[in-house]
What we know:
- This protein is mostly helical and 475 residues long.
- It has one domain (20-474): Ribonucleotide Reductase, subunit A, CATH 1.10.620.20.
- The chain is built from eleven helices and seven strands.
- It has helices at 24-44, 111-131, 142-169, 171-183, 205-226, 232-270, 283-299, 307-315, 358-383, 418-424, 432-440, and strands at 50-58, 67-72, 336-343, 346-353, 408-409, 415-416, 472-474.
- The strands form three sheets. The chain has a three-stranded antiparallel β-sheet with strand order 2-1-7, covered by helices on one side. Strands 3-4 form a two-stranded antiparallel sheet.
- A hairpin with an 8-residue loop joins β1 and β2 (67-72).
- α1 packs antiparallel against α3 (142-169) and α3 (142-169) runs antiparallel to α6 (232-270).
- The longest helix has 39 residues, at 232-270.
Amino acid sequence: MTPLPAPADYSEKIPNNVDLHEDRRLQRALESWQPNFLTWWESMGPTLPTEDVYLRTAVNVGREGWAHFGHVAMRDYRWGIFLAERDRDRRIAFGQHRGEPVWQKVPGEYRADLRRLIVIQGDTEPASVEQQRNLGATAPSLYDMRNLFQVNVEEGRHLWAMVYLLHAYFGREGREEAEELLHRNSGSEESPRILGAFNEETPDWLSFFMFTYFTDRDGKYQLGTLKESAFDPLSRTCEFMLKEESHHMFVGTTGVDRVVERTAQLMLEHDTDDVGGLGGIPLNVIQKYLNFHYSVSLDLFGSETSTNVANYFTAGLKGRWSEERRRDDHRLTDDSIMVDAVVDGRIGQTEVSALVGLNSDLRREYIRDCQNGVNRWNRILEEAGLPQRLRLPHTAFNRRVGAFSGIEVTPEGEVLPAEEWERRKGAWLPTDVDKTHVRSLMRPVHERGKIAAWIAPPRQGINGKPFDYDYVHLA
């Protein structure tokens, strides 16, 4: 009989479903970290003063009824520690330990690698809060403001998830790494975030929607590989994080939907492609933002070949997306894969061991998923009777990591000399003029039921509430 999902214990200072009260030393360590977290939130979190926000808070880890909705002062949000229910029969699904029981403690030989994986994942969570901290002041509606703040508090909870693992399983080194997660800051010259995309600006709402569509989607795939981990507490943590991550991608998907819909309306009403002077965002500018965020997110998957990732897989630390649905031996020692490469100065492919090419395998899953959103946005244009279409640029476009980092390529895949790239890149990536125009539209609309002119209203509100619900009470 499957046990019922564990409810969160909200009587504790730190809500949790891991029986934190039974380990007083761990509880004290996390309670001493908590004030530092709140100091970070006050100094690096959302800058717009609010009384309270209509937020969802996790109350258990089951598939149904796992969240409670209500107005909460953000500083008082009950960030907590939640692991999906433990499957006591779970076995390792891949690598050299395939078929063995999963680990409840960290094997000594994998300690450093597991800690590194957890730190990198943990570092992305507060980074995105820092990148988005000023957006509340220019929210196009209270509905959108609420969605921004929901994303922010859940990224804060995902930080808690990784910090719990560091404290609970990695001793003094883990505690030190947990402190460092609050000391690095997005865009800092002295102490930047670990991954490049998390040091980029998110200065406007089009950037935010593209970030939550493309970069949070990378997060989905990274969490999906860690969910396969033989280290069961990490697997269970990531399984629950994926529940919350889906809302972040929903915000991005539907946000871009609504920008494209409004642009299409203005194009039809005024019979022009140039809607910039009409208070809209032209399709070619939307395409440039798409190009940038997609290419930066592709870099997050790392190089096309990686012995580190091969070793993680073989050890059982990090699997593939949907590992158990794969129809192979789940060890890959004799398999090969074609990966992207530059061959004689041209874009091509080369054959490598499947283990070494796991980054490419994951990136391809991601690219297929990204295409679904572009198809969705193009249906909006098609239904409006417009011939224009958005598209994903070539995988070699604007790459700074991996095989294509040393060449310059058009969105269509044509290799260019560096001088020509410099001359033409403004046609494909946001220019200062484009960014200035988009930012000029970011005038706040903080009145119930009202929305900025550059974006269409949502089809429905949150949790059955209407669009004109009082989602946020401003201070």
